[in-house]
Amino acid sequence: MASVHESLYFNPMMTNGVVHANIFGIKDWVTPYKIAVLALLHEMSTTKPMALLDRRRLNKLILPLQQGPDLTLEQFLKIVEECCLRMVNAVKHRLFLMADGELQDMEHFFTILPNAFSDSEAFKTSVVVCYRQMLLAYNKLSFSQVYKLYKSLQQYCHRVQPELSALPTEDMELTSNEDPSAEHIDKDELDTASLHQSELRSEGTSQGPLSQKQAEYFLARQAYLLKNDENKAMSPAKLQDELNNILKFNPDFAEAHYLSYLNSIRVQDIYISTHSLLHYFDRLILSGGEGKSNGDEGYGRSLRYAVLNLATLHCRFGHYQQADLALQEAIRIAQEANDHVCLQHCLSWLYTLEQMKGSDSVVLTEDSVKIAAHFCLPYLASLGIQSLVQQGAKQGMPANKLLDALRGTDIMHWKQSLSELIEISLAQTTSIWRMYGKSTMARQQAQLLLNMNSLEPVNFSVQQNNTEAFAVALCHLAELHAEQGLYAVVSDIMKHLKQQFPPHTQHAKLWMLCDLKIQFEKAMNDGKYHLAEPHVTAISALNSTEGLYRKAQLLKALNQTTEASQILQQLQQQCEKSKDIEMTIRVMLASAELHWDSSGFATALPLLLQALALSRQHNLQSLTSETLLHLAFTQLMLGIPEQALVLVQDVLESVLAHGSLIDKGRALLLAARCQMALAGAAAQEHRLTALEQAVHTLDEAAVYFSQLDCKERMRDIHYLQARLHHTLGNISQRNKCSMLFRLLDQELPSSGMTVVSHL
């Protein structure tokens, strides 16, 4: 089931994907690269007859060019050429006209720029305003500064030096040299705070100091990509190099430390992530970068959220004791400051921590929902309700109550466009329907999530599709397709999951476990136990409970009943302690099958009846159907075929509607065996009709087993068909089925289990 605790991850740096960087010591200057972008903007404004598509591409290109790192002239012209080939020549002609001419040519260019922008609509965040600010900066330059800028432009255009020439900070200040109040800068600062010299390498990283806007743009883009599509973000190593480069020129840039923290979490590096997180809050507190909350108030608020973030970090790495201590400290500080919002975040993480430790947190969660609703915090209230739904599903609450609770919160989510919570709700609904055995409804909900358009603002051409909810939905679809024998589709889904969630990412464990379980079931169905054994070890590494259950299944198939029984007893104790009802029922069914192997059909009945009571109590329809099939088989072996056939017919409709191919085939095979047993005791005039009906049922079962390529089951089918055709006098059909049985019997290893002793 999709978990909700990841949505409580507090990120003080990001608001709708925007990084708020207000403390950066490097100013924006007029550079030769900015002149090149100005030339492009001028040519776009003066060139009227331009194709609509070309103009649209150039308009989308302008802002990244202005906010990104400086490019070489070759790189700049190549990017423009990809958008509009015609514009490249005009921009190149304009630049070389200034570089090959005289200083007055550059002066003339800046003189005509205001005329080009006079008709443009200007607002605070528009590109035009950005360049008008640059024009103001240019107009404040002294003659010597303009001359140095002109020389830098010549070097930029003719590539006289490998790097752009840098103008000293004292020459390029936005105040004139004659201003006596101008701030004096040390020689060390002159070396670092000089004209931007960054030149993009082939992989897209920069080498020199970035301006404030460039750093903000870089951090905003990478933070947004990490949140919404990690594959499009820089690799962890390259991103860390870029962040180290930014921090080298400005160690007090708090937001760069926070992005370093997010980047370290990607590779599960607890040392660097903790180090970066503490540095972020240290810089934030020292700089007073909390907006209006400066002084003691800002210090206290930063300290509270610093401790809270430290607690979430320990939760993420499974350090529950350290997380609990950090949460208690955050609660204490928040209570002293009477910060209800921080207290509510702490309470949300407190019940999340209790869930992660396996404790009962229903009371804490209910209190959290009530308090969040009282303080008008709908996001946290909805998370609490979703957590209660998740706990209620595990405790066997009726599906209608759970879905009603989710529907009530969904109305609020849609009204307030809380797309992240909508995704979690759909993923939870998918999991609930699947847990209750309604595979058709589960597929519908999963498809609804995957085809839903995100309500989040789409920045950098990225949709939000790498969340835990998407991973859960895709894993459910993969398992549902595998149950129907559509392994080619499963392969495509897994390929997409591996691309969208690489192995080092947070949610990769979901598809890894899903893939291993599918491969294990396929190997077991094919009777290739030597291929299933490595999967058991891999599953155990990801989930110890699932690994033990699969190991018991494998040992049982290999007739190592003693070892399998010991593992099942150990697993049952663990499940009773953790209150894992689903696994408890599965362990009971597997234990009953072990009793079958020793012909202890009567001793299996108490286990099966207990499993049936649990599955019905918790509304687990799929497990209820499976338990009834086990009971029917036990009754058949005890000589009560009439009661066995009644049980099979009661669950057959549900199994055919929502069950997997293996379940459908097993149910029909059991029904055919019951019909054969009843035919043996029937009167002579009804016997042939009953046997023909059993043959027809076996033919239907064979269709499902053949789709799975389940050779062991097909061998059992051919054996029973041969016996029935022999009784009916169909010699040719008997010989055909006998030959198919002989071929499969020679191909498959002897497992010790015959059609008589297993379901």
3D architecture notes:
- With 759 residues, the protein is mainly alpha-helical.
- It has 35 helices and 2 strands.
- Strands 1-2 form a two-stranded antiparallel sheet.
- A hairpin with a 2-residue loop joins strand 1 and strand 2 (18-19).
- Helix 16 (340-356) runs parallel beside helix 18, helix 25 (529-542) packs antiparallel against helix 26 (544-557) and helix 30 runs parallel beside helix 32.
- The longest helix has 25 residues, at 684-708.
- Residues 4-28, 160-206 and 289-296 have low confidence and may be disordered.
- It comes from Cyprinus carpio (Common carp).
- This is Anaphase-promoting complex subunit 5.
List the defining traits of the structure above.
phosphoprotein, 2 strands, ubl conjugation pathway, cytoplasm, 759 residues, mainly alpha, cytoskeleton
